[in-house]
Write a structure and sequence with these properties.
Layout lengths: L2 E2 L7 E2 L2 H14 L1 H10 L4 H4 L6 E2 H14 L2 H22 L3 H6 L5 H14 L2 H4 L3 E7 L2 E7 L15 H15 L3 E7 L8 E7 L10
Antiparallel strand pairs: 1-4, 2-3, 4-5, 5-7, 6-7
Helix pairs in contact: 1-2, 1-5, 2-4, 4-5, 5-9
């Protein structure tokens, strides 16, 4: 089930990794703090001209590290999670085919989640960059793994710090499956592990799906 992320000459990832952190940081901390974090990451040009195409993964790596260096840990985690939720919202509106969003809630959740994870793996390079993504069934849920995550390249902390990816996964799976989904990171490269590993679990009952 492992999928090696495609490796362009310069590894690229989606622009949401930049724009949604800017949005979440500005909402929570103001434009001056946002400008300071982006300047620290040496990508201040994205403030005036938000990217609309794929960006170098190094830019995201620098920004994620700068966020955690500039903002207290709990607040940085909150910004990262909010940015991940915003990214998930965007993907549900613009990137995940409507047919999947109509079909998968009709299937047993284990089947729907596996089909969605398989679809995500085909586009892993858009968030893992030069890293890799894989998944497997694990009990009553899934285990998702990112190896070589750009988010952890400049980050060294004691606890798992990939709230951006955890929140993105939770929003996408929840939105597509039509069920409450929780995603918990229990291994993180930023905390010394060899990869970033997430447990994904869903609740039993379907919930009403809002229109995206």
């Amino acid at each position: 089930m492992a999928t090696r992320a495609a490796e362009p000459r310069v590894a690229l990832i989606g622009p949401n990794a930049i724009t949604r952190i800017a949005e979440a940081l500005t909402t929570g901390h103001g434009i001056a703090e946002t400008q300071a974090v982006f300047a620290r990451a040496r990508i201040a040009h994205y403030i005036d001209t938000p990217p609309r195409v794929m960006v170098p993964e190094d830019d995201f790596a620098a920004l994620y590290g700068a966020l955690f260096a500039a903002v207290p840990l709990a607040q940085a985690q909150a910004v990262a999670r909010r940015a991940g939720t915003l990214t998930g919202d965007y993907l549900l509106r613009h990137r995940i085919p409507r047919v999947l969003q109509w079909l998968l809630p009709l299937l047993p959740p284990a089947w729907g989640a596996a089909l969605l994870a398989r679809a995500i793996s085909r586009h892993a390079w858009t968030f893992a960059g030069s890293g890799s993504f894989d998944w497997r069934r694990a009990g009553d849920g899934l285990q998702l793994t990112i190896t070589g995550s750009p988010a952890c390249r400049h980050l060294h902390v004691q606890d798992p710090a990939c709230g951006y990816f955890a929140a993105t996964f939770a929003r996408i799976f929840s939105g597509v499956l039509g069920r409450a989904v929780t995603v918990t990171e229990h291994h993180c490269a930023a905390a010394g592990a060899d990869c970033c590993r997430f447990n994904l679990r869903w609740q039993g009952g379907r919930r009403h799906q809002s229109q995206n």
